[in-house]
Known about the structure:
Mean pLDDT: 94
Number of helices: 4
Distance between the termini: 29 Å
Order of helices and strands: HHHH
Low-confidence stretches: none
Strand content: under 5%
Amino acid sequence: MFRLRAVLLKAKGEQVSEEEVHDAWSAWMQTIDSSHDALVRCADLSPETLAADAPYAEAIRQATRQAARSRG
């Protein structure tokens, strides 16, 4: 999962969305439990389930900003 989030950081940076975080999680979860209840399109998720992706999206955005500051 960390690798997929690293790819999102590199590819999307501050523009990453909760939907993209969910898609990355879904790709990972397919290998763990392909019957998981949250393996659905974002449009079909409950607001509470989609909200669970928000902290991860924000962490990717913050890491992007931090990396930009360190590059100066």
